[in-house]
Design brief:
With 378 residues, the protein is mainly beta. The protein contains 1 helix and 22 strands. The strands form 5 sheets. Strands 6-5-8-3-19-20 form a 6-stranded antiparallel β-sheet, with no helix packed on it. The protein has a 5-stranded antiparallel β-sheet with strand order 10-18-17-13-14, with no helix packed on it. About 3% of the residues have low confidence.
Length: 378
């Protein structure tokens, strides 16, 4: 009598089905890869992080974060005719923090644009009410601290009706209204556009009549390369009428130079000036301070790479009680980086905390090219 060996049947059945399961897994992985932008990050973490649009500051009303992502159509993992059923985001792997869940109202608008690279701080003005694809409550999920590999796309925004992508460059606008101090950083990719320069601190500034030491910074060191620019900002200055202006001193770094008894003893000069530029003051991000700014264009000369020069602000402040109404800012030294051929434009992320005034043309903060969130298109 022949016995029925169930174990051998199961072994043969598993062996016969293994290729089918493997093929299904490969198809699933391929479909996932065809849904994630930028391409190549379906399972690999982006390595960068963006706080917006799902982190909300408590200091600005309304409690809202507003973001626009501009995408180059050629960089998308799909072509014209794709039905987009929703969007999904995943937490970053950069911050070793757990993110708490919170309830939010999310609104999404999408449209095709002529040139994604041309969208700037006024990108929100290209959208209209007809572009809305989602407006509902969303539970932003809790996210545990990161482990090896990329996090799952747990923050999902499913559309009630599919949006037909007609091809071309794409712009996505997201509004998130939720509790103040909500923190949820998205996984992001930061493409290197140039090998930027470096900035070194030489010495601190002395107090202005705004009762704070004047600081000096290069706003974005990634732009400091031949054919690029240096954006210098002196901060924490007194508002007019006490604050009258600023003189940027550019030259060689120096050991601290005492300015004498006519100045506050904390004021030291850290630059041997070779050139100077007088600028006015304008409003600061802090309501009780002003600041001064200077943009220095760098020639397209590769021999500038490695060049160092020092910068310091000489602040004109009528509110000071010293014999001479001058203070000095922090002194820094700037090193020019190397110029590289920039990669192709993939996208850009822009954002704003709080509300924009109606018709504002400069409301969004402009992120660098190719710093973008990782998005799964459902």
């Amino acid at each position: 009598m022949r016995t029925f060996d169930r174990s051998s049947v199961f072994v043969r059945l598993r062996a016969s089905l293994a290729p089918a399961f493997a093929a299904a897994w490969l198809i699933g992985a391929s479909l996932a890869a065809q849904s994630v932008w930028p391409q190549g990050y379906a399972t690999q973490p982006g390595g960068a992080a963006l706080a917006t649009p799902f982190s909300i500051t408590a200091s600005l009303q309304p409690l809202r974060t507003h973001a626009v992502v501009a995408l180059r159509g050629a960089s998308l993992p799909f072509g014209a005719g794709r039905k987009i059923q929703g969007l999904a985001f995943r937490r970053d792997t950069k911050q070793a923090l757990a993110y708490a869940s919170y309830a939010a109202t999310v609104r999404v608008r999408m449209r095709v644009v002529a040139d994604a690279a041309g969208l700037t701080a006024a990108a929100h003005l290209v959208f209209s009410a007809a572009d809305e694809v989602f407006n509902a409550s969303v539970l932003v999920p809790a996210a545990p601290p990161p482990v090896a590999g990329a996090a799952p796309f747990d923050l999902r925004i499913p559309f009630a009706k599919a949006w037909d992508y007609p091809g071309g460059d794409l712009a996505i606008e997201v509004f998130v209204d939720g509790p103040g101090r909500a923190l949820w950083r998205c996984d992001a990719v930061e493409g290197v556009v140039q090998d930027g320069g470096r900035v070194f601190n030489l010495l601190g500034g002395c107090p202005t009549s705004a009762l704070a030491p004047a600081t000096l910074r290069a706003a974005d060191s990634r732009r400091i390369y031949p054919s690029g620019r240096i954006d210098l900002v002196v901060d924490r200055l007194a508002l007019p009428p006490q604050g009258l202006g600023n003189v940027f001193l550019l030259g060689a770094a120096s050991a601290p130079i005492d300015l004498g008894s006519s100045f506050d003893p904390a004021c030291k000069l850290g630059v041997w000036p070779i050139a100077l530029q007088v600028t006015g003051l304008f409003g600061d991000r802090l309501p009780l301070h002003a600041r001064a700014a200077l943009a220095v264009a760098l020639p397209n000369d590769a021999t500038l790479a490695g060049l160092r020069f020092a910068v310091q602000g000489l602040v004109i402040d009528a509110g000071l009680t010293s014999a001479v109404p001058l203070a000095v800012s922090q002194a820094i030294e700037v090193e020019v980086g190397r110029a590289l051929a920039p990669p192709a434009f993939v996208g850009r992320h822009m954002w704003k905390h709080g509300a924009l005034s109606a018709g504002a043309v400069d409301g969004l903060q402009l992120g660098p090219a190719n710093l973008v969130p990782v998005i799964a298109f459902l």
